[in-house]
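Service request form, structural biology core

Requester: graduate student, group of Dr. S.
Request type: structure prediction, single chain
Budget code: on file
Notes: please return the result as structure tokens.

Sequence provided:
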Amino acid sequence: MRLLLFVETVTLVAGGWSVLGASVVFEKDVKPILRKRCYGCHGPEQQMGSFRLDRRERAMVAGRGEPAIVPGFSVQSLMYRRISGNSMGPQMPLTGPLSAEEIATIKAWIDQGAKWPDEPTPQPAWQAEPRLDRLFEQFRQGNFSKLRAAVVADPALAKARNGKGATLLMQAAVYGRADDVRWLLAQGADPNVADAAGGTPLMLALEDAAKVRALLEGGANVNARSGDGQTAMLIALEEACGADVVKLLLEHGAKATPDDGTDPLVMAARNGDPETMKLLARARDGKYPAGALTGAAFMDCMACVELVLEQGVSKTLASNALQVAATTGRIAVLKMLLAAGADANVTDANGTSALMRAAYSDYAEVDRVKLLLEHGADINARDANADTALRIARRKGDTKVVALLVAAGAKE
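Core staff response, request fulfilled:
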């Protein structure tokens, strides 16, 4: 999709940013794309390739010897070239490319200077209780008896907040036990008070099913949103908290359907969690969305791939998943997708084929390349840069994959 030339304003034309109207705003236009499509691999829980996109200072640093984001110059920014398919290696994200509109938005943002404002420090709308920070330290040291004594002496502490909006119940959600959570609830602690970032006790307790149950039974709002729009369900899936926690959330009314463009079922597939996938599917229409197959293939989860294939998939969907599996998947996953009708000659927008991905993969296996050739992959196909699988494979050195391709008749 073509971007119009700069004039004075930025407007959305034909699905992409024409650089004609108000500037692209990071918080409103860019951050939602990164959170939805990129944080799973380059966020707080995982930083593949040591690249992180949820922190400005980490996102701007060099990647593979060159800057990931060059303010004002998208074509020099490795991040843009990877999401647009104009770089060596697979187009990102591996679970499926961004839409043309999303790519154009990020391009316009970088070209406009990649403005990424520091988070403002909001003024608290509550009276901060100075004693809480000392009590929090007692909690972290396991001295819950002292905390109980303080609350018994002054019951108002159960509802008090510090300068960042944190409460004793939030500390219990992180450092305490389920019994500690229940005790504070019995003293009048509010399970739905949020801190300055919009986080609730439930969002902080998601790694412990017993504490999650205590909070839900104590009246926690299961669909409350944090400051950046996350719900407990989305956070639980982002942090791979497991089927037990997801089951509790569903039993108390959590949404299982797509939320603000984020599909919980696709997130479960990207976690390689077949049990959670089944729970979420039963809570909606019983079917698995298209993104679940590519997510499962990315995680090399055979059980997850099998769940989606059992319902039947189109050749296009199987082929898209094959592109992902060719980079990261085991031979068994590739065989499953090919048996489901995947086209061994599928290419992305840059003309990169599954064979090229397999030949260049950091997990390169001769058997993977051999399998694709056995299923008719064009050994001498060229991408948009006129590169063949052999030329791409040689960039990894004189490998067994190179030897296999040469023996099979590959040309430069």
